[in-house]
Amino acid sequence: MKILYFAWLKTKLGISEETVACSAEIRDVDSLVAWIKSRGPQFQEAFIDMDVVRIAVNQEYVITNVPLKDGDEVAFFPPVTGG
Q: Which end of the chain is more exposed for a tag (fewer CB within 10 A), N or C?
């Protein structure tokens, strides 16, 4: 699956996108976030407060845990305000 990072997440992590295979360890959004946090201090820090991180799967905003499969696109971004 393709993982995209936007705004300050991209800056903190030093990457804008990467490709990761689904596995027994990465099977849904919650397990993906847990895996990301386990990758090092900068990942742990960026994802420490999930109240300020929004998630979209295949360009659809999700607020609950959803299953993932190879070929999905998962985007992480801060809340967006408009005016």
A: C
With 0-12 / 13-18 / 19 or more C-beta atoms within 10 angstroms meaning exposed / middle / buried, residue 82 is: exposed
List helix spans (H) across 1-83.
Answer: 7-13, 29-37, 41-46
User: Of all helices (H) and strands (E), which one includes residue 19?
Assistant: strand 17-19
pLDDT digits (tens, 9 = 90+) for 25-72: 999 999 999 999 999 999 999 999 999 999 999 999 999 999 999 999
End-to-end CA gap in the chain: 33
Q: Specify whether the CB–CB gap between 53 and 8 falls below 8 A.
A: no
Q: What is the pTM of this model?
A: 0.92
CA distance 75 to 1: 11
